[in-house]
Structure formats: C-alpha cells, structure tokens
Amino acid sequence: MELQTNEVVLATQAALAQASRLAVQYSFSIVAALLLLFLGWWLSRQLSRWTHRGLLQVRGIDETLARFFANVVRYSALLLVFVTVLAQFGVQTASIIAALGAAGLAIGLALQGTLQNIAAGIMLLVLRPFRVGEYIDTGTISGTIVEIGLFATELRTPDGLYRLAPNSTLWNVPITNFSREATRRFEFKIGIGYDDDIDLAESIMRDHAESDPRVFKDPPVATHVDQLTEGAVVLTVWYWTSASDFWPTSREMIKKVKKSFDENGISIPLPQVTLRGTPPQIAPPERPADEN
C-alpha cells in the first residue's frame, strides 16, 4: 500500500516538474501571445475606425457601404492575429488556412442567394442608380426609396404600402429613376375630330402651357399633329418643368384643355368600331308537290 502511495507521489511530482518546465519554456510565448491578442484587438478597432472615416470622406460612398468595409477590415485583421498567435505555439497554420478556405467555400455555396444580394447591394451603393427619397420604377416594383441595405432595399409605394425588394432583383432589371433629374418633359396627347379646327386646338393647348408660370420658357412649348387614326386627329403638346412641378402641372393641363375644348366646340372622339357584313341569303319557299 505504501509502495502505491509513493508511486502516486512520484508521478505527481514528475507531472508538476514537467508542467513547470513547460511553463518556463512557453512562458515567453504565452506572454507574447497575450500581448499580440491585445494589440491585435486594439489595432483592428483602430483600422476599422480609420477605414470608416476615410470612406466617408470619399464622395458618393454611402454610410452602409463604409460600415461594411470597415467591418471587413476589422475581422480580417482579427483573423490574421489569430493565425499569428497559433504560429507562436508551433501550430501548422497552413492546415488551418486550408480548413478555413474550405469552410468559406461551403458556406458560400450554401448562402449563394444571400451572397448575390450582398454583391448587388455593394454595387447599388457604389454606382448609386437611386438614393433614399427618390422614386423608381422597374416594371414590377415601384415606390420611393426608404433605405438601401446590403441584403434588400425598402420602398414605400404611392398608396402607402411597404415593400422589401432583394438587391439582386433590383440589380438585374432596368431601373427608371423619376427623381434623379431636376427637370422633366411632359407629353400630352389628345385626339380631336376630323371636322374640328386643328390650329385652334393647338393654340388652346399651347396657350394653357405657356400661361403656367411653372412651365419653362426654354425649351419652348411645342405642339404638333402626332398621327391620323381612323377616328381622330391626334395632337401632342410638349413642355418642360421642374421634377417637383411635373405632376401638378400635368393634371391641371389635362383638365384645362378638356374644358377649353368643350367651350370651343372641339370634340374628343370616342373609339369607333365599324362593322361590315352582307345580309343573309334567304332561300325561296318550296312549292308543294301536288302543284306540279
């Protein structure tokens, strides 16, 4: 029994001695690793802040995009510090880097749709086809931009509905931005009868446009005969106004022209359909057989 106790004591003493030697041997590496971790953490935060501030000084860089790249710099620095610390203890970092690469590839394949949205979000934030507060139309999605994120874009429709569109959807379709330009041209087409006075109708349309102070004098208001259809002579008026006055002036223009046409006896023909046919052939009545 005493022999077993002595063996345990000796084994414990040997383990403690070995631990002491390892502690002495790796004490410098441990201290260096702790210092490296602290300095790396501090430096990553500083790099992130410097990147964020620097990108905000660049014209056209959005706050969301600046924050995204700042986080990329920070976590890349932390990953580099982590690999460097492992190298201090003799760990083969090449295998770790290969494992991280394989894991990143697997995650990328699993989140392919999400990564497409992120890539599209970065492109939207860099190229800026639209900004917050602008009204856009893609053919399937329309509304005023509320927020542009890395994954999706928030919009509000004219009737007050909230819509969330994936960035990849917006990036892969043509976008019409109704708010980007400061001026817009209004085009109004209306048909009149063939017996009506074309010059009088054009004069009414031109006078209403030129009398509105919100309509620009240069380029000047223009009217012309656009086309001749089966039931009407189609007239067109063009004028330029500011983007903010586009809808108010266009609505008033249509209303004023309709009233003036009615007052001057100018008709607005409705669509007509002409039907042509031949009367049915009626067969003569058959004569009774006994009359023959």
- CATH uppermost class of the largest domain: Mainly Alpha
**Strands side by side in the biggest sheet:** 4-3-2-1-5
Shape: elongated
How is the CATH topology of the largest domain named? Helix Hairpins
N-to-C order of helices and strands? HHHHEEEEHEEHEEH
Unreliable stretches: none
Structural class: alpha+beta
Number of folding domains? 3
Radius of gyration: 39 Å
Portion of residues in beta strands equals 15-25%
CATH architecture descriptor text of the largest domain: Orthogonal Bundle
- N-to-C span: 148 Å
The number of helical runs is: 7
Return the average pLDDT rounded to an integer: 81
User: How many β-strands, per DSSP?
Assistant: 8
Helical content stands at 40-55%
Q: Main beta sheet, described?
A: 5 strands, antiparallel
Subcellular location: Cell inner membrane; Cell membrane
Protein name: Small-conductance mechanosensitive channel
Family: Belongs to the MscS (TC 1.A.23) family.
GO molecular function: mechanosensitive monoatomic ion channel activity
What does it look like?
One of its GO terms (cellular component) is plasma membrane. Residues 273-292 are annotated as: Disordered. The chain has a five-stranded antiparallel β-sheet with strand order 4-3-2-1-5. It has a three-stranded antiparallel β-sheet with strand order 6-8-7, covered by helices on one side. The chain starts with a helix and ends in a 29-residue tail after the last helix. It is α+β, with helices and mostly antiparallel strands and 292 residues long. The model has no long low-confidence stretch (mean pLDDT 81). A hairpin with a 3-residue loop joins strand 2 and strand 3 (152-156). Helix 1 (2-56) runs antiparallel to helix 2 (63-88). The protein is elongated and about 140 Å long. It is built from seven helices and eight strands. The chain has three domains: 2-110, Helix Hairpins, CATH 1.10.287.1260; 129-177, Roll (SH3 type barrels), CATH 2.30.30; 183-263, 2-Layer Sandwich (Alpha-Beta Plaits).
